[in-house]
Amino acid sequence: MSTTKTYRIAVIPGDGIGKEVTPVAQAALEKAADGVASFTYENFDLGAERYLRDGAILPGEDLERIKGTDAILLGAVGDPRIKAGILERGLLLKLRFSLDQYINLRPSKLYRGVTSPLANPGDIDFVVVREGTEGLYCGAGGAVRRGTPNEVATEVSINTAFGVERVVRYAFQLAMKRKKHVTLVHKKNVLVNAGDMWQRIVDKVGEEFPQVTHDYLHIDATTIFLVSNPSRFDVILTDNLFGDILTDEAGAVVGGVGYSASGNINASNEYPSMFEPIHGSAPDIAGKGIANPTAAVLSSAMLLRHLGFDEAAAKIDRAVEADIAELGSTKRTTEEVGRDILARI
Amino acid sequence: MSTTKTYRIAVIPGDGIGKEVTPVAQAALEKAADGVASFTYENFDLGAERYLRDGAILPGEDLERIKGTDAILLGAVGDPRIKAGILERGLLLKLRFSLDQYINLRPSKLYRGVTSPLANPGDIDFVVVREGTEGLYCGAGGAVRRGTPNEVATEVSINTAFGVERVVRYAFQLAMKRKKHVTLVHKKNVLVNAGDMWQRIVDKVGEEFPQVTHDYLHIDATTIFLVSNPSRFDVILTDNLFGDILTDEAGAVVGGVGYSASGNINASNEYPSMFEPIHGSAPDIAGKGIANPTAAVLSSAMLLRHLGFDEAAAKIDRAVEADIAELGSTKRTTEEVGRDILARI
Ligand SMILES: CC(C)[C@H](C(=O)O)[C@@H](O)C(=O)O
Ligand SMILES: CC(C)[C@H](C(=O)O)[C@@H](O)C(=O)O
């Protein structure tokens, strides 16, 4: 008789290739956790199709049901037929904010077998700890005299000591398990209010972690180092917008966002955390069955690790590493990559 | 008897390597314009040394004198002994804003002879047209309960149709002289107020330029393309902060910010425009005489072009191109590079 605990997983495939890669992530989850945990899945029909059909983006009852689950697997959100911002703000960011997923965790690793666009990439293995619930993503802003020559549009970045301190502490704790170095990235020479607060909180929390060194880089300089010397990074700690920008550049540097997963984590466990590839819905290749499901599969490893199943997560990571090392440069369909990775789990 | 007009140039060497590269830029200016224009120079003792000596950052009388000049050559601003933001906001940004330098023009070109960190860089030759007087750089923001656990720090991005339209029109005009393509970069799926205004104004102004095509990219996706396919760009049009970030990444991709110059342009000529390398004061190598003056020299070519001396500017550009092609990979001092470039002008 099985004594494994059963977890409820909300599955939101979303749009475009999100629908193609999410089933592969689920299959990997199942196989890796076999014998240690069981899952029941609740599928949510959210995203562009749903919105175009009945105008719903994230109905209250869906959000309540999602709140009752143990974790969320998300594919991708975004569709060219829909005005920019509607699904992003109404669905993806609404989830991150409503579920207080204040840690946006984004590892970047150059796998053996992947060709980086850099001539001399070196060993790349760092994690971006991006704040997930503040900054310019708050939706505070507006416009007056819209559409006239006198229009003024504002965007307000709201940053709280409460919100910054919890992500700073998380970054230092993570660094303790890694190479013990934190790099704060901001633009404190221009954004003096927010930047100064981030720096003061890093300095203060840093004192609790005497074994962890920390330094500071401006966002602009960081984009240079990601290209010229990405090996220098261990844990990059930054705000919501800078984290968005840096992780895409980092994805490019490690050979494509197809290898980059992310966790939107409520580290205090009041709400479920959400795991997703960092790539988007990729309308240009959607429906062709050629999207690389690796990032989605890696996000299911992050989900397992979050639930405490380190060994099951490591199985997926090892399977992905072996798959890429051997077959990374061969052209395969979504199904083929899924089959090859699954065979190794 | 010479009939050349004399121009008054304000020279602000500033900090660190700014002091070492600016004289080289001046020498190049002199030589290239010989016979077509004359210059008188007014040196301004502004930057870290001055601030540490007497607390002055940009005294009103200096600003008034600068307003009376025809153009400004700036070295670099920033010093590790001074809290981030003081000189940047008080001197560099104060100049850009007071002189209404609303076009921040930043060409990126991969010169023959320069090794890009990219394995397959392709032909890189684009210009970033960065808005220079709005957005998050306005200094609108503040903090409450500073230093307490309840601190809230804000940064406000202010964007006006007036400010956006003039830079959009400039970008389209520039594209007409180039490959006739404009890429708007923003984050309109999150920053919906400002992003939507930028897009509407681009669409409207674009109609005046039927020969110029335009498309849109999110800032995060743009950081990917700068690494994976920088050749796709012609004119990149973006806001103040995104322009800051992209041009540093672009500098890295073309082999280092040592080859990247910029113009802070008041295109309506009410105030002098200002030309500077995009690199900073580089405290780590300052005082050693090894800073590469190429970007500063290229900024004097931009100054000449701005004043209408296209042929003199082209002389500098050609000299730099020839110098890099032949000697780009040899280790030289600031003086040696200066001497080599000057010999070719
Ligand atoms: C789709 C978009 C709102 C989102 C973001 O900006 O956070 C995406 O780019 C990401 O990085 O997850
Ligand atoms: C020094 C700093 C204020 C400045 C900026 O952010 O504009 C610099 O990075 C630049 O790009 O010219």
UniProtKB/TrEMBL annotation, chains A, B:
Subunit structure: Homodimer.
Binding residues for Mg(2+): D220, D244, D248
InterPro entries linked to this entry: ICDH/IPMDH, IsoPropMal-DH-like_dom, LeuB_actb
SMART domains: Iso_dh
Superkingdom assignment: Bacteria
Required cofactor names: Mn(2+); Mg(2+)
GO molecular function: 3-isopropylmalate dehydrogenase activity
Functional note: Catalyzes the oxidation of 3-carboxy-2-hydroxy-4-methylpentanoate (3-isopropylmalate) to 3-carboxy-4-methyl-2-oxopentanoate. The product decarboxylates to 4-methyl-2 oxopentanoate.
Protein name from the UniProt record: 3-isopropylmalate dehydrogenase
Pathway where it operates: Amino-acid biosynthesis; L-leucine biosynthesis; L-leucine from 3-methyl-2-oxobutanoate: step 3/4
This enzyme's EC code(s): 1.1.1.85
Class in the EC hierarchy, top level: oxidoreductase
Protein's gene: leuB
Pfam short name (any one): Iso_dh
Record-annotated Isopropylmalate dehydrogenase-like domain positions: 8-341
